[in-house]
Amino acid sequence: MKSLYITSIERYSGKTATCLALGRQFQAEGLKVGYLKPLSLQPWRIAGKIADEDAVFVKEILGLPEEPWELSPVVITSEFLKMHLRGETNENLMDKVKKAFNDSCKERDMLILEGGGSLREGYVVGLATTFVAQEIGSEVLALVKYRSDIRLLDDALTAQTRLGDLLTGVIINRVPEKAADFVSDLAVPFLENQGIQVYGVIPEIPRLAALTVAELIEVLDAKVLTETINEDAFIESLTVGAMTADAALTRFRKQVNKAVITGGDRTDIQLAALETSTTCLVLTGNLHPSPLIVKQADEFGVPVLLVPTNTMETVNSIEEIFGKTRLGQPAKLARFQELISAHVDMEKLYSALTIN
Fold first, then answer.
1. pTM, rounded to two decimals
2. Engineering a disulfide at 97: which of 38, 149, 302, 304 sits with its beta carbon 3.0 to 4.6 angstroms away?
């Protein structure tokens, strides 16, 4: 039985998507696949128990028999953290993870483990990715999300420094077209000369990190003022309308499929947004817009959302989830699987994991 621990330097690098895509790829090759998230900081209650928030989705996609809470043996809630810091918890968390690991290994050819939000997580409870991987003897695959040329290199080298011999290699994710030549011609050869195997370079597809209108409504607990609404429409960028109408129009024309966040009293900004590629309007401060705006937005098929929070609070709420590859839409997962198949050298990965 082999195990592969998938981690990353920072949050929202595509770990869950990669776990699912690789899991389905391994299953297509005839392997019996399991999944485990040793440590979760995303508590979610189901059937009266605490599990990781993505556990139900992972269970469904990979067809796993375990219950969601069995897939995430240690979930840190704020209450548990306080008890832990006060020394009021006696449970050996590493032993709990190892038991879950051993149970998950039974009758499996491959166990995929998902790391926390980043390589920084888990130290306070003794469950950092490095510690867990050492205890269970798993090889680690690090996802490195492209941010800039130098940051890409430093992040990959940081993963190598922290993980040492545990690191089997990296996948570079979300590489924009303008950086593709630098990554393939310079970054990949450099990293491999440093002893870091690069299994693939996945291009950036903005729609994979996009929010849907329905997700935005849920996150903001927004009131919909228009009659026409396409809840599955994608929001690929955010912009705040806090400038003059002329400046706003210039900026808005450069962005497509965007959400425009502005005050309900900024009729000039709202009109400018409706003249360009706007997926939805988010009006802050519980200030209702002019009925003319609602009517025009309805005609253009642009939903108008009303929220009680101010503009800064609204932006902060959206930014907490924006950029995360949310895989609730089957089309997103299917597209990411296509990217894995096209851009990740599976034979090279199989060879490193000694999978025949």
1. 0.79
2. 38
